[in-house]
Design goal:
The relative contact order is 0.17. Helix 1 runs antiparallel to helix 5. It is built from nine helices and seven strands, in the order E-H-H-H-E-E-H-H-H-H-E-E-H-H-E-E. It is globular and about 65 Å long.
Length: 266
């Protein structure tokens, strides 16, 4: 399911969410300056678990390129020396969350942040929300590092930070409703589901995929455990702030009923 919108209206403009989305797009445009096949910022600012584990060690990263042969283009795989990190290795657990592996990776993450971030920012406050986002991103990076401490593959993406926002949303708005796009074979329809259903299904997928990757030793290019780690930390922070009464009041919002809408309060 792909979320289209939720039924919550925030009391304040989500300034921090806007700035985070803008920052990720600007960084991605900087990534594109070196060309699609140039590792560039991936290895300089992305998190390479093996480098975090042993900052002074030599890291060989896998690569894949296409070369022309008499029989046509052929993919060649191998290893090469990684570019030196532009920041201390420990700091890449933060810098990596502003990098993305492609347009779909970027747009997918920013779309989920756009859907769920405004309401979480409204309840946490702008500074608290920024701490939630960055803290969840760092926790996601560390979770991935713990799951694959010797991996030489650069890890990038805001998925773990966005997962933290989604975990917080689950705690704050379990009864909210999400209008989602649901592909069924060749057909596409829309459904309205409770937020807790949408977000728990999403989390279950991450956990199951991460477990299968751990057993099979192959993650398919996705840092599943980073998503799990960010989600758990985001939900935990929301539970803590709610228990200590440090959240802003819940706003009035609009309830989705099929194609119709009506107002209610939490």
């Amino acid at each position: 399911m792909i979320p289209l919108r939720d039924d919550n209206r925030a009391n304040r403009s989500p300034v921090v969410t806007w700035l985070l989305v803008a920052a990720c797009f600007v960084v991605f445009l900087l990534q594109l300056r070196g060309g699609a096949d140039e590792p560039g910022l991936y290895e300089e600012y992305g998190m390479i678990p093996a480098r975090v584990t042993s900052p002074e060690a030599t890291v060989m990263v896998p690569y894949r390129e296409h070369v022309m042969t008499p029989r046509g283009p052929r993919a060649v795989e191998g290893e090469r020396l990684a570019k030196p990190s532009a920041v201390p290795a420990w700091l890449t657990v933060l810098t990596c969350i502003f990098l993305h592996g492609g347009w779909l990776h970027l747009i997918g993450n920013m779309w989920f942040l756009w859907i769920f971030g405004d309401n979480v920012e409204d309840r946490f406050g702008r500074l608290g929300y920024l701490v939630l986002y960055l803290g969840s991103g760092i926790a996601a990076s560390l979770t991935h590092w713990l799951s694959e401490p010797t991996s030489p593959v650069p890890t990038v993406g805001a998925s773990g930070a966005v997962a933290g926002v989604m975990g917080a949303y689950l705690v704050l708005y379990p009864r909210a409703r999400v209008l989602a796009l649901l592909p069924i074979g060749f057909f596409i329809t829309t459904v309205v589901v409770p937020a807790f259903v949408f977000l728990l299904i999403w989390f279950a997928i991450q956990f199951v995929q991460g477990s299968m990757a751990a057993m099979g030793g192959e993650a398919g290019g996705v840092a599943w455990w980073a998503h799990v780690g960010g989600y758990v930390v985001g939900a935990g922070l929301a539970l803590l702030l709610r228990a200590t009464d440090h959240l802003r009041p819940a706003p009035a919002h609009v309830e989705l009923h099929g194609r119709g809408l009506r107002r209610r309060r939490d």
